[in-house]
Each structure stands twice: as structure tokens, then as C-alpha cells.
Amino acid sequence: MNKLKKKLNGTQLLLIFTFFIFCSGLIFFLCNDFWQDEVYTLVHFDFVPFKTTLFDYHSTNNHVLFNVSVQWFARIFGINDIKSALEAPYLLRLIPFLYSILGVVIFYFGARNHYGRHFAEVGVSIWCTSIVIIDFGVQLRGYSLSILLTLLQYFVFLDLLKNKPTFKKVAYFILLSGLSLLCLPTNIYINVSYLIFCFTLCLFPFTSYTFLKKEISSKGIFLIGTGLGLITLGVLLYYKWLLQLQPENPLLSSFHLFSFKNLIQAFAIYFHFSDIRYYLYLFLILWVVQFCKFLKFKSYSNIYFPFFCFSMPFLLFFIHGSIIIQRTFLSLFPFFVIIVTSTIEKSILWNYRFKKYLNYLIAGNIFSLIFSFAILLNNSKRNNEFSLHQHDLRNHYYLVNFNAEEVTLLARKIILKNNIKLFVWDDFGQTGIDYYLNYYDVPFEMFTDRMKFEQACLVLTNNKGALEMYLQQRHVIFKRLLNKDKQYNLYLLQM
Asked: pTM value?
């Protein structure tokens, strides 16, 4: 034990604690009930024949590669139907949980290999204290896998640039690029960014000095770009063929070419990734000041390449004008971490006198995560209480007190005991409660404003305020059966 303490310095102990908090945050949400998108995915793309998962793309919920992994996992653990999954959500949530943990581990070793130990330590601290990654870390969608694949793709590409490209490494990069697209089609913007980068290096090989301190072989970069282009084209043709078999999906069509709104999403995403760690902007400002002060336009920096990878997809979205769904940009998170860490490295770690403050930075990140988590809990409970819509990428997706199974079982017990009807008022779009009611064999009808309250009944809703106002205006006597901070509540209407 004493030898272990000697080997582990203060920074490493802080990082272990940071990783522990990160895992604890993921575990906190591991038993959450599945919400609508997750249940829809299970019904239509997971508990279906393998052929359906590969060839049915009627909805963007089908993150093909991720759903294939869910199918395999479910078979291994004997989860054979939807009801089994709803009763034990933590079993299937272990899949994205493992992807999220693996992402941290791979980032540390990859960053240490390419940028150095101090860079890796700061980067892991930034990664593990990003509340948005904890929010999505166990969601049964393809985002955790997409982040992992994007990270692997980046490090392999960086290795190809730094060292002589071999057929094996090029093939590995091409495979990762194809798998990334199969997981999340919007990763096409990342692949195209790499293609543009390869094309630029082929035309101007000397530009590699800005981030590698060496000139790259045009022949090698041409080989990488050609392979990437072919696999990207192949997967796109696969999706194009799938879409021809499905009804038209507006989310996959182009709208408003050259949409300025799409361009400014880069700032929104950067803000959401940073969360309340506003001091990260200070490091960015310091880096910009240093850059301008010394006019280092031709100087080496770790930040140029990841900045290109982060910003180019938004420029492509601007040109294409697609509908923006913020969570699709989660794949860019590894680039964000490397950008932020690069600014910190240039602002602090470049000077040995400031390295002693590294522990304070990591401790500050830990405190920020705890504070962010407290804000998330408070905001989510408040949103539940006042029936406020929850935002994408920020205190999102029914994370806290999403009680679909609880309210379903209680509703079934009450209507059977009292022989009354159940009505459902589900606002903010579909949230998945109908799936729970159906799979637990609970009969229900949808609530309408033309209802006549002539006998006692039970109402299940996620819009408590609107329902209570509606009932009060009609002088209907009711009793709320659950706490206000629950996502769903039950109202017993007494006649």
C-alpha cells in the first residue's frame, strides 16, 4: 500500500477521484425508466429481426451500429422482450455505460501518447466533469458509441499523420470512419471535414508544420483521403437506398441553404459543453491574446487540427441548411476537450512554475461538476413541478423523477380496485407513457377537452398545472396522488 501511495501523486489521486465521480454520475441514472425515444428504439429496431435493424430506416431513431450491439447484448443476457427491458432498464443501460467508460480510458492513453501526460491529465479532468456527457452517458441511443468512435477515428488519423501510413492503420481508420457513419449518419460532416483536410494537405503539404512540426507525404495523405472518400460514399449509398424504401423524413431533407442559424450553433454547443465552467473561456482568451501578441500564424499548436474538426461540421451544416438537433453534435465532444486542453496547456502548462496549479484546476472542475449536478437536480424537479419543457443538451430528457413505471403500476392498481377508467394527458410531444401502459396491460383513453365528468375516474398527466387549472375551471373535485416533482402524476377525480 505504501508503494502505491508513493507511485500516485496528488494529481493522479485527484484524477482517480474525478473518474469515480464521473462513474457515480452515470450510475445515478442507470436505473432510469426509458423515455419515448428509447422505448421506440427498443420496439422498432432492437427487439426485431436483425434484418429489420439493418434495413428499416423509417425513423432517425435507428442508430444502426448501436442497435446491433443492443441486440447482441440482449441475447447474451436473455432479455427477450420489451417488458423485460422495461422492468430492468439498468441491464441495457450497461451498454452505453461501458462505451462511456471506455471513452475516458481511450482518451487518456491516446492523449498521453500524442500530447503528453500533463495534457492527458487535464483532458480527462475536462471530459469527466462535463455534465452533458453524464446526461447522455447511459441513454439507450447511439451517442456514447458515436463519441467513442469519433475519438478513435481522431487518434488513428493523428497517428497516420505523425508516422508513415501503413495499410493496416489506413484500413483501421477507414473502418472506424464507416462504423461512425453507421452509428450516426450526421457524422458525415466529420468525415467530410477529414476529406477537406486531406485535400488541403495534398495541395499544400507545408501547412502540416502548423500542427505536426513536419511535412506530410502527399502520397500517404492521398491514400488516406481516397479510402475515406470511398467508405463514406459506400455508407451514403447504403443510407440513400434505405431512404428510398421509407416514407419521406423531413429531418433528412435540406432546408434553407446557407442557414446562419446553423452556423451560430457552434457557439451554443461550445457553451453547453462548457456548462458552468466559465473559467474555461478565460484560458481561450489567454490563448488568443498570446497568439495575436506574438503573431504566431505559422507556429505549431495542438489546437489547429481539433479546431478545424470542431468548426468545419458547423460550416457544412450552414451550407446544407439541415434541421439542427443539438444532440447530434455530441460526436464533436472529443474535439472540444482537446481544444480546451490545448488552451490550458498554452496558458499554464507551458511554464513549469504554473504546473503546481494543475491540482487546483482539477479540483475546480470537480467542484463545477458537483454544482452542475445540483443545478440539474433542482432544475429537473422544478421543471417537473411546473410542467416546463426540458431543453436539449441542458437539463434534458426526463432525467430526474421520470417515473413511467411507477405511475403505470399505481394506475393499474387503482383502476382495478375502484373499477374506474384511466385517461391520459401527455403533453410536450410523446414521452413514452403509452408504451408502458400498453406493455403492462393497463387500459386507457386519451384525455380530451370535451370530456364530461359524470363519474369518478383517474387521470395520468405530465402537465400538472394545465390539468389542475382545467379541472378547477370546471369545479371538478380532484386529489393529486404523487409528489409534484415527479414527471408523471395521477389525479383521482371525485364526482
From this structure: 0.92
